[in-house]
Each structure stands twice: as C-alpha cells, then as structure tokens.
Amino acid sequence: MNKEIKIGTRESQLALWQANKVKGLLDAQGYNTTLVPIKSEGDIDLVTPLYEIGVQGIFTKSLDIALLNGRIDIAVHSLKDVPTQLPKNIIQVAVLERGPVKDLLVYRQDTAFLDQPAYIANIATSSVRRKAQWLRKYPKHQLHNLRGNVNTRLQKLAAENWDGAIFAAAGLERINVRPSTSIELDWMLPAPAQGAVVAVCREDDDFCRQACAPFNDLATALCTRVERDFLRTLMGGCTTPISAYATISNDTIHFSGELCSIDGQQLFTIAEQAPLADAGLIGKIAAEKILAQGGDKIVAEIRNAIK
C-alpha cells in the first residue's frame, strides 16, 4: 500500500470536506493518500446561470481531464453534479452513505411572507429545478440567480435585499454553516442523487477500484442509480427541473419523481415501488410513464429553452 493515491477535488470548503471524507476512509485502511485541489469551470464563472452555460458536467469536467491525464487517481464529486453518462474510461467505484437530502430556505428576517399571498417575495437560487418548484407553489415571487460556493452564496444573501435563498441541507450541514434562520422545505422533492458523494477512477485502475470498494454503500448506490436512471431517461443533465428520490424499506424500493415545466405551471408526478430484486428498471419505467402521459412535450420545451 505504499503507492500514493492522489485524490482530486474542487477547491470549495464543501468539496474539500467530501474529499477529506474519502481520504479518511482510505487512510483508515492503510493507504497513502494526498489531496489535489483543482478549479472547475463552474467555480470560475459565478455570474452566468448554469442553464445558459450549457456544459454537461461543468463541476466535474476539469477533474475528469485530470483523471484521464493521470494527474489524479480518484475524483470525488457531489453525485448530483455528475452527468448521467460518465466519460469514456471513467467508472464509478464508490457511493458513500447518503447524507441529508432535503432543500432548505435560508431567510433574511422571518418566514411570514410565505403566508402572505399578495406579497411578492424575492428568492435566490441558481437551480432550474428549485426555481420551477418554487414558482409552482409561489407563482408571484421573483427569482434571482445565485451562484458560487456555499459560503459565497450565504454572503450574497446577507448583502442583497432578498427575502431568502434555497440551499441543499447537506451542503450547509456538512461544513457546519447552516444558519438558525433556515427551515426545511418538506414539500420540495430533491434533485436526483442529492446528498450523495461519489468517488470515480479510471476504468483500468484495479488498485483504486479495490481500495474504494469497502466504503461503497449498496443502499445509497442503488437508490441514486434509480434516481439517475429516471433523470437520464427523461433527458439527463443537472440543469433541468427534474426531481427524484428513492428509499428502501422492508426489502422494497420506494420511488417518487417529478418533471416540472421551467415556469412551474405544469407538473408531472409519479410514485412507484418494487421488490429490491426487481428494482433495476424502476427509474427508467417511471420516466417512460411520465413521457407517455404528456411529459414529452415539457421535455421538448425544456430542450428548446436551454439550447
């Protein structure tokens, strides 16, 4: 185990937390590891909305290149940021046990505005999914683009005259920056694979594959695969208003999925369950049902809007 495993990561505090989590798991097995921070395209341009950038894997591309070039041996990502089709010669080797999956509203003063139908609140988020879900529930509210790492977004919220901003609970809680002025959005279905961390390596790297295998959480890996199958079958891409969440109980997988129009006016929902032995196609089947019910028209509209 004297061979050094170079772990690639983005430079944000959250990304480093995730990479250090993987590093700790490898170190505990006796492996020699080091972190290699790499800046991603998504961290450089903090102004353009993600859907306008139009790059699949904007937060993972730089790490993929470093991995294929041999600069790093393992890349660690938030799984929700990873394209549903991995680059050639890169494979998923471990999905860590899932963390919090819900979204949070961090508010400036209070949440009274949520119960005031006539009030036009100003809410910030960079997520197309969150914007669509929010507009469906609060169609009069104004949505504002908010880019940057977790700390940068919290600072922007404090500086702007907004009523609140939407964050993933996992991102705030993992680095202990969740404000007391936050509430969980129970009604908001999360992004596919939200709250999960993944390690990937080169397909021909048996050493790293074997090193990561012990901390691959089978339940999380299955649930996130079902969610990402749903996403891939509909249209793929993290800059789309698609939500999915799968859980396992009593040897049964339970799945919920949503496809929303960008303006929040149209919504397709589906709930499926299946025995674990038959769970492999549940995400794909759920997506195909939504498409057959008219979801294909929303998908076509979304494709035109984000070209």
Total E-strand runs = 13
How many strands, what sense, and barrel or not for the largest sheet?
Answer: 5 strands, mixed
- The H-and-E topology, N to C, reads as EHEHHHEEEEHEHEHEEHHEEEH
Instruction: Work out the helix count.
Output: 10
N-end to C-end Cα span: 47 Å
What is the CATH class designation of the largest domain?
Answer: Alpha Beta
Overall average pLDDT: 91
CATH homologous superfamily annotation of the largest domain: Periplasmic binding protein-like II
Radius of gyration, taken over Cα atoms and rounded to an integer in Å: 19 Å
In the CATH hierarchy, the architecture of the largest domain is 3-Layer(aba) Sandwich
Principal-axes geometry comes out as: globular
- Total count of domains: 3
CATH topology of the largest domain: D-Maltodextrin-Binding Protein, domain 2
Protein name: Hydroxymethylbilane synthase
EC number: 2.5.1.61
Organism: Chitinophaga agri
Domain Porphobilinogen deaminase C-terminal: 222-291
